[in-house]
Write a structure and sequence with these properties.
- The structure is a single chain.
- This protein is α+β, with helices and mostly antiparallel strands.
- The chain is built from 8 helices and 14 strands.
- The strands form 4 sheets. It has a 5-stranded antiparallel sheet with strand order 1-6-7-8-9, with no helix packed on it. Strands 2-3-4-5 form a 4-stranded antiparallel sheet, with no helix packed on it.
- Helix 5 packs antiparallel against helix 6.
- The termini are far apart.
Amino acid sequence: MNKDYGLAHSWRKTNRFGDGQSLIGDSSFTSQSAGRSPTMKRLFPAFFFSLSVLGLSAIAQEFNELKTLQYGPGDTETSGELNEGPLRVTVAHKEGTSENGSFTTYTAELGISVDDKPVFQLVGDEQLMLSTFVQIAEMDPSNPYPEVLYSTFTGGAHCCNDAKVLTSNPDGTEWTLVEIGFFDGVPHSVVDIDQDQVYEFVTSDNRFLYKYSSYVGSYPPTQILSLKGDRIEDLSKDPRFQALHREQAKGMWNVIQELEPRQAEINGILAGYAGTKALLGEFESGMEIVKTRYDRDSDWGLTNCVGGYDDQGECKGETITYESFPKALKAFLEETGYLSAPN
């Protein structure tokens, strides 16, 4: 069990905030960034750059105040308990063996009780690598109890933080499991961005990853998700969070200026920059930068499937091919809600 860590999970279990250092754990950064140019390294992963604008000391103070259990590879203690008023959360892990007998597997078992009365039991998916993150935080003040964030790392080079939240109904008599989603990276804390005592789930918009460049060349906008009852709402456009997006845009612009215009991979960061400027209501000025700097030789993302794909990977609807990156990007931003689609 460990309560001293940063927003980015680090198997070294060190707090990455108090000293103002990188927001991502050393091991996960260096293992996936070896051999890249200094500029390209700075694009990986974009989410942690966006979090830096929240203020390292402030986040560290809030983060350490949240009741948290975290388990990772090498931990010998794999069970624990959190208490917040009448709310009690217990976590245990059942060990097993993988089908080929090569790995020890871990299955998390989470229990929630109120006033010593069990109200919810959850058995997680089997993990090939121990990675469980449980946290108590107020994410929806419309019910009498704080929420329980439950996240696990699914494994894989670029995937995935499988994040869920357990919440009660308005009168506190029933509890529900709400899927937040699968996200690039590893489990991390929720954040009270605007200091209103209600915590948000802050991530990067994964729809931008691989859309117009490789993973390392992608620099997505920040995405802010909030719990409302039994639904997850995207509050990225909320005016309360404009300062976060403005700092994100500044960071993106600094990286863009270090890159040669029209160089390979630049379209990935230009897409994120235009999306972030759209969140600020400054899309046109963002697109002026895109039009003067984009890589005209890249056809990455110029073909789009409308209607999604079937189980065989075939497009279920119309396939559209755009003549240029700026036109493809504008259509994508309309499709994803960054811009209002034309009537």
